[in-house]
Design goal:
mainly alpha, 15 helices, Lysozyme
Length: 300
């Protein structure tokens, strides 16, 4: 049989096959997997898998994420994070001579953005500066935890598997708490919150055209110089650099975003000290944090 005839027959066969198997012609080629070799999702993430698919996400993509070698339940990290109160954090290292000098240099370098944000939001530039200093040490450390993993782990907190893993890593003198109603309610609330944050992260990485497994941040899932959660980026992220993108690893965008956030949460000229504390508490629920921000701003 001539070669061209064989090619024609194969082409005709493929066309017929595409009609018999809907979607075959449109299915994108993925060199990493095929429907026949998808890995089973770890049991701890099965409820999350089902939830993400119910939100309209592609089942194969969800499977790839949740079976990635980079993804696992962060039992040790979550046990440490959830069993300690942030109020006990020591903020003294931000008041050192060297830290204040670095903040002053930052203030001089980004003077235009800070002044513009103060003018448009009424939030003093020193408040914005203090928050970025505490949140990421002026951008020098924005977190080393895989954000997808941090959020997926928290999204699984309402499963029995999660409690079993947490129990191994939980402080021995607090084990009774894991079986309490307070724990069940708290973890269920946090899991529901984390699912929404994970979904927002997926939307953002699609918008940014970034690989989701390259995004890193805090153990809670916050991102960038000002440590916004994904839903906060969607609501209050601002383009301070004028490049028509929101990138919280860009200091101009981080400055503008902090100002917008505080403005939209009640900051205005003439607030009393306690009123200022209340606004900052919407950013971080720790009073020690809020007082540290205000005290740093005064120093600056």
């Amino acid at each position: 049989m001539p070669r061209y005839a064989l090619i024609l027959l194969v082409s005709i066969f493929f066309v017929i096959l595409c009609h018999l198997v809907p979607g075959l012609a449109q299915a994108p080629f993925n060199h990493n997997t095929s429907a026949s070799i998808l890995k089973p999702v770890p049991s701890i993430f099965i409820p999350l898998q089902q939830w993400l698919i119910a939100q309209g996400l592609d089942s194969r993509q969800v499977n790839l994420w949740l079976t990635s070698s980079q993804v696992h339940f962060e039992g040790k990290l979550l046990a440490s994070m959830l069993s300690h109160r942030d109020a006990s954090r020591d903020y003294k290292n931000f008041f050192t001579k060297n830290s204040l000098l670095r903040a002053k240099n930052f203030q001089a370098r980004y003077k235009t953005s800070l002044e513009h944000t103060q003018k448009t939001t009424s939030v003093p530039q020193e408040i914005i500066l203090a928050i970025i200093l505490i949140e990421s040490n002026l951008g020098s450390f924005t977190g080393a935890t895989l954000t997808f993993n941090a959020l997926a782990s928290q999204a699984a907190l309402d499963t029995e598997d999660a409690i079993d893993i947490l129990r191994v890593n939980w402080p021995k003198n607090q084990l009774e708490y894991l079986d309490s109603e307070a724990s069940v309610t708290r973890f269920a609330t946090r899991a529901a919150w984390a699912r929404q944050e994970l979904l927002a992260l997926i939307r953002l990485t699609n918008l940014w055209q970034k690989e989701i497994m390259l995004i890193k941040g805090s153990p809670a899932g916050a991102i960038g110089w000002c440590q916004f959660m994904p839903t906060s980026i969607e609501k209050w992220g601002s383009d301070g650099s004028g490049d028509y993108k929101i990138d919280l690893d860009n200091p101009h965008d981080a400055i503008a975003s902090v100002g917008r956030y505080l403005q939209e949460h009640g900051w205005q000229t003439g607030l009393s000290y306690e009123e200022q504390v209340e606004v900052i508490l919407t950013y971080n629920k720790s009073r020690a944090y809020a007082e540290a921000v205000l005290n740093l701003a005064e120093k600056l």
